[in-house]
Write a structure and sequence with these properties.
There is one protein chain. By secondary structure, the protein is an all-alpha fold. Helix content is 86%, strand content 0%. It is built from two helices and no strands. Helix 1 runs antiparallel to helix 2.
């Protein structure tokens, strides 16, 4: 499960890098907010597992 969470975080980082290339500021902001929420959920899952 820890490997899966690490892969999820890596995927979110990759999406963030791709998002930085978008022209729409509003879209970048919305995606960044979503990514941050997902990262918080991953942190919560990690705490629950330990």
């Amino acid at each position: 499960m820890k490997t899966t969470l690490a892969n999820a975080e890596a995927a979110l980082d990759e999406v963030q890098r791709d998002t930085d290339k978008l022209h729409s500021r509003e879209l970048r902001k919305a995606i960044a907010k979503y990514i941050e929420a997902q990262k918080e959920q991953i942190k919560t899952l990690r705490r629950m597992m330990n």
